[in-house]
Design brief:
- With about 160 residues, the chain is mainly α.
- Among the domains are: about 35 residues, no CATH class; about 45 residues, no CATH class.
- The chain is built from six helices and no strands.
- The longest helix is centred in the first third of the chain and has 45 residues.
C-alpha cells in the first residue's frame, strides 16, 4: 500500500491532468472558429486598403506636431507669421510644407514692393517724400504733371 503522501500527490496529479484536459478541449474547439473569421476580414482589408508609401526619414527624429495641425494654434504668439499664412492662404502644416522658403519670399516681396511704390507715389502727389527719397518724388511729379496739366486744360 502507498503512503498517504504518495496518495495525495497522485490525486493532485490526476485532478491537474483532468483540469488541463478540460481547459484544453474547449480552447481547441473555439480557437479555430475565432481564428477563421478575423483572418478572412484582415485579408479583405489588406487587399482593399494599401498603406501609403512611407517617405525616407529626414533625420529629425520623431515629429512633435502633427502634419494636420492648424498653423494659428502652432504659431499662437507670432502675429507676423500668421499674417504670412493668411497671405499664402494656408491653414495646416501640410499645406505650408508645399512651399519652399524662396517661393514664400518671392510671393511676399512682390506685393510689398508694389505697396511701397504706391506709398511713394501717394506721398509725392501730396508733395511729401520718404527719408532720402526726394529724387523719386521730383521725378514722379515731373512725369505726372504734364499729363495732369493737359487734362485740366481739355476739361475747360
Amino acid at each position: 500500500m502507498a503512503s498517504p503522501k504518495t496518495r495525495r500527490t497522485a490525486i493532485a496529479k490526476k485532478s491537474a491532468a483532468t483540469k488541463t484536459r478540460a481547459v484544453k478541449k474547449p480552447a481547441v474547439k473555439k480557437s479555430p472558429a475565432r481564428q477563421a473569421a478575423p483572418v478572412k476580414t484582415t485579408k479583405k482589408v489588406a487587399r482593399t486598403a494599401k498603406p501609403p508609401a512611407r517617405r525616407k526619414s529626414s533625420g529629425f527624429g520623431r515629429v512633435r506636431v502633427p502634419v494636420d495641425a492648424r498653423l494659428d494654434l502652432v504659431f499662437q504668439k507670432d502675429y507676423q507669421a500668421r499674417e504670412v499664412f493668411d497671405f499664402l492662404k494656408v491653414q495646416t502644416i501640410r499645406e505650408l510644407e508645399q512651399f519652399n522658403p524662396a517661393e514664400i519670399l518671392d510671393r511676399l516681396t512682390g506685393p510689398m514692393q508694389q505697396t511701397v511704390l504706391r506709398i511713394r507715389k501717394t506721398l509725392a502727389l501730396a508733395n511729401r517724400h520718404l527719408a532720402r527719397d526726394e529724387k523719386f518724388a521730383k521725378d514722379f511729379l515731373r512725369e505726372v504733371s504734364p499729363t495732369s496739366v493737359k487734362r485740366r486744360t481739355s476739361q475747360k
